[in-house]
Amino acid sequence: MDRSSLTKLSSCLGEASELVKKILDDENASSETSRPETSSSGGNRLFSALQRARSMLNSSQSSTSGLGKRLNKRERLRATSTANDQGQRKKAKKEDMKAFEFVLLSLGEEDEDEWTISDDKIMLRGLIQLSPESSEADIRRKLGEVTRVKFPTVTDSDFVFLRAIRRKLSIPVTCDSFAYKQLKVVAGQGSIYVKLKPGFECLLENNDSSYDELLTSYMGKNEQVNYSQSIRVSNSQSTSQVDNSQSACQVDNSQSTRVDNSQSTARLGNSQSTQVYNSQSTSQLDNGQSTRVNNSQSTSQVDKSQSTVVDNSQFTSQVENSQSTQVDNNQPTSQVCPEMDKLAEEAVAYCQENNISNPSEILRVIQNKFVKGRNLEVQRVEEVSEGMTQYILVNRKSILETAFEELKEVALSDLQKTLQVDFYGEEAEDLGGPRKEFFRLVLSEIHAKYFEKGLKDHLAEDYQIVGKILGLSILQNGKLPRFLEEEILEEIFSTSSKPNSAIQHLQNGLKCLGIHQIGCQLPMFLHLLRRNPDHMLTVKQLVHLLKPEFSPEGSNSRSLENKVYAAFVKYMREVASGRRHGLSLSSILTFVTGTDEEPVLGFHIHPSIQFHEVQDSFLPSANTCIGCLRLPRPALNVQLPATEVLFSLYDMAFLNTFFGTK
């Protein structure tokens, strides 16, 4: 192309550019703006392209060779591309939900080197939908939801993720967490393979019947059990005086005398069984707390035809020669507690016949069958709890030694009675709260002395009474002993190997309460005894546990109660963050209920917060038997203290674990 042609082309382009510019100027001057914005922007792009083309052609005229030079990378025409327009960004394509197949395997007791994929090991297959934002908790939750359709006792935290390479399975060691990206790497183009944690394989026993129908059926039978065991004939006089200012379960000067010179009077022959007791109990409380005075004499006569029947089975207590049976630590357990073996067999048969595999429901079954006497928990606030109990007196400052001394001499038949605990020099009538406090304290001491640094073979004989205390705590709504190492737990409930002396004594102690028999025959029950390191009480959980009971909306009392409750919630947050020295959220729950965690069977009466008008101090008080925290509220002439002063009073209360002094 010669120079004249280039000049002519440049002139044409200039005229075209001027024409386009004139058109755009006319449109901008017009009052009507009905044209879409995209048209204007399209004209701007055309004008810009023409201007750039003209300048490029003009610059090419400087070439001495007469040839148009090649445009470099930055000079190429890109103005017409909508993707590169200024201020407009290309939106990233959002990944959709992706379906993953998962396979739940049961690998049994095989060594990890022998883990392989085979049809006989596959317990469940399914599909789950995951998004790229799915965290490990989301993935576990979806796995749990699908798995619980068939295996209702499996929880989200029970899964272990596996890597499959040529049908060989292994546990990945390079993943800190199994979020979406990591799981895609582990699964690849195949499935997500999972198994349950060691010892949890028992949860994969399938139930053919509907779990909801089974639970409903079981609860109906459970109510029948409670009713049949509470049959008593008594003549009693009872007075109850309650001041609205305080309410507590506390007793002073109590005596209990049993007829026949402290000999056991439970006899079962062909004719009848008679139990006679005279008891005097006085409950004296300070500051207007509840007072209960009971003078009762009751006689229960049961003949053979009137024996309490549960699930077509008779539960009787046979004591020869009317003498209390004492435990001989050196005698084989099978010879000293045949009754517990029988009760355990009946409980196991009941669970198997009714397909009960939930560990909590198994505990409820054996609790109803094994524990006798007074109800473990207060059933109704306005009712006085009555029934047989096994009384022990312990020293808080030497809880382990005094507990051993008290329980060593208790007859096996009396171990089935509801435990009634008193602390030296403290006022408290045990209707559930002091017993929970006792189990919490003694289990902490047992853990530190007998298990924290391994088993102590030189203290082997002590482990029998340790086993009894663990069994009592499990059965009577105490703290669960979840401090046992997995190896020790498996050895305790193993029947194949010959255990060492400490384990053998521990087994004997658990057999006295039927726990060892249940654990060996119903392995899913052991799920309650395994460690749960993730269990940590949170502010949200504690707020839901302690339900406030406010005055009616709009009243003067309600506005004052709102201020106190707001301060208490703020105090709980400070405790949770560690700003209150020596306190944790468990300390607050312990002060209110006697236990530092929610029982596996829950609270019979839901814990609550009650407000009362301040008398002398804003110091909180509690009734552990019904789980009631009492917070003083301001009066018309008494203002709420400053925040730090109020919190110091709360510290003083929640750091104190005593029930009061006599």
TrEMBL record:
GO CC list: cytoplasm
Enzyme class: transferase
Polar residues bias (residue ranges): 56-66
Pathway: Protein modification; protein ubiquitination
Residue numbers annotated as active site: C625 (glycyl thioester intermediate)
GO molecular function annotations of the record: ubiquitin protein ligase activity
Name of one Pfam family that matches: HECT
Annotated region described as Disordered, given as residue ranges: 24-92, 233-335
Enzyme Commission number(s) of this protein: 2.3.2.26
Keywords: Transferase, Ubl conjugation pathway
Ranges of Low complexity composition bias in the record: 30-41
Top-rank taxon: Eukaryota
Residues of the HECT domain: 411-446, 588-632
Catalytic reaction(s) noted: S-ubiquitinyl-[E2 ubiquitin-conjugating enzyme]-L-cysteine + [acceptor protein]-L-lysine = [E2 ubiquitin-conjugating enzyme]-L-cysteine + N(6)-ubiquitinyl-[acceptor protein]-L-lysine
Classification via SUPFAM superfamilies: Hect, E3 ligase catalytic domain (SSF56204)
GO terms, biological process: protein ubiquitination; ubiquitin-dependent protein catabolic process
PANTHER family: E3 UBIQUITIN-PROTEIN LIGASE NEDD-4, HECT DOMAIN UBIQUITIN-PROTEIN LIGASE
Protein name, entry field: HECT-type E3 ubiquitin transferase
Species annotation: Stylophora pistillata
Name of encoding gene: hulA
